[in-house]
Amino acid sequence: MQVYHHINDFTRLENAAVTIGTFDGVHLGHQQIIKELTDCAKLIKGETVVLTFFPHPRMILNPENHALKMINTMAEKAEILDHLGVDHLIITPFTRDFSNQTPEAYIKNVLVEQIGLKTMVIGYDHRFGKDRAGGLNELKQFSATYNYTVKEIAEEDVKDAAVSSTRIRNALNVGDVGTALELMGHPFTLSGKVVRGDQIGRTLGYPTANLFIEENYKLIPADGIYAVTVELLGNRNKNQQVNDPYHPANAKKAGSHPHYQGMAYIGHRPTINGMSRNIEVNIFDFNEDIYHQNIQLNFLHFIRHDIRFDSLEQLKTQLAEDKKDTIRYFARG
Ligand SMILES: Cc1cc2nc3c(=O)[nH]c(=O)nc-3n(C[C@H](O)[C@H](O)[C@H](O)COP(=O)(O)O)c2cc1C
Ligand SMILES: Nc1ncnc2c1ncn2[C@@H]1O[C@H](COP(=O)(O)OP(=O)(O)O)[C@@H](O)[C@H]1O
């Protein structure tokens, strides 16, 4: 997949099948749109283009709204779209100028002249252009003039499945990573660098790698303990991943890097009166120094809520129970 950070970097295609959206979570509904896009591209012997906005329009229009958290970082989204076989991903900065275009100007200047639109695949409720005046009707209205077709994804197709980014965010906010997995068809992930903590973990017999997440817009699930798989990504630069998905350090094929099971903790560590909200993982059958490495946690199952214990000894007893519960979860297959 080719990634572009500005529409001007894009070289117009002969036959582009295009879709536009935020695609947060790249859930089963989104995957249906991408599948439709791929089928349309085959019909016109063309290539697939996903046009997305980053930062999210609401982050720009509402920068003080810290409540707006995203299921995916841009890098994670790019990676999933790449796996789904998308040919071109255009990440457009959402500027006032851009959003002030009329629907026709947007269709003509951006979609037709800069991208080479031949087939538009679009969800029933997508809006674009100044005051969100553009939608399916406008796309259809100008299709004859600018010589493209419109493939609509019907409301019932998306709604039937009851899949939405909002529903996934709500599930994650209460720790229900199982529902998120079901609605996305892939696990919710957190990735970042391993940083030093207070080094208490190892004294309990449960060393925990502490995760630092760079993207402040990333949604962190509810406090609690989770069954996760852990991928050791080495020292790759996550930003490079978006800029250059072909960089060898960014190749992330199944089995190309170590994969472990583990139990993750999200919370303030009330037992030791911790101040910060930590994301930590105890990796099973593992004993290596991974400070400064990038790791990815794949969240599969909620184990329990965070608890304040009266002593570290009690916490340690509970950690042994958590490990048993987590192993039992994985054994269930
Ligand atoms: C699976 C797991 C469950 C945990 N559960 C709790 C908990 O219920 N209450 C709590 O205060 N801390 C909990 N912790 C966090 C520990 O307090 C923390 O790992 C320990 O203080 C070590 O911190 P350090 O990595 O900064 O050294 C848990 C950690 C893990 C890995
Ligand atoms: N099984 C393991 N799970 C997690 N980290 C491990 C494991 N074995 C070794 N480590 C290393 O130990 C560190 C965690 O030890 P810990 O005592 O909890 O220190 P800290 O408080 O700095 O996280 C990790 O960052 C990692 O480098």
Automatic annotation (TrEMBL):
Q: Which UniProt keywords apply?
A: ATP-binding, FAD, Flavoprotein, FMN, Kinase, Multifunctional enzyme, Nucleotide-binding, Nucleotidyltransferase, Transferase
Task: Note the superkingdom of the native organism.
Answer: Bacteria
User: Tell me, what is one Gene Ontology molecular-function annotation carried by this entry?
Assistant: riboflavin kinase activity
Q: Which Pfam families match?
A: FAD_syn (PF06574), Flavokinase (PF01687)
Q: Gene3D superfamilies in the record, alphabetically?
A: HUPs (3.40.50.620), Riboflavin kinase-like (2.40.30.30)
The EC number of this protein is 2.7.1.26, 2.7.7.2
* Pathway linked to the protein: Cofactor biosynthesis; FMN biosynthesis; FMN from riboflavin (ATP route): step 1/1; Cofactor biosynthesis; FAD biosynthesis; FAD from FMN: step 1/1
Q: Please list the residue ranges annotated as the Riboflavin kinase domain.
A: 183-331
Q: Which reaction does it catalyse?
A: FMN + ATP + H(+) = FAD + diphosphate; riboflavin + ATP = FMN + ADP + H(+)
Enumerate the SUPFAM superfamilies for this protein. Answer: Nucleotidylyl transferase, Riboflavin kinase-like
- Which GO biological process entries does UniProt record here? FAD biosynthetic process; FMN biosynthetic process; riboflavin biosynthetic process
- Free-text function comment from the UniProt entry: Catalyzes the phosphorylation of riboflavin to FMN followed by the adenylation of FMN to FAD.
**Family named by the database record:** Belongs to the ribF family.
Q: What is this protein called?
A: Riboflavin biosynthesis protein
The scientific name of the source species is Pelobium manganitolerans
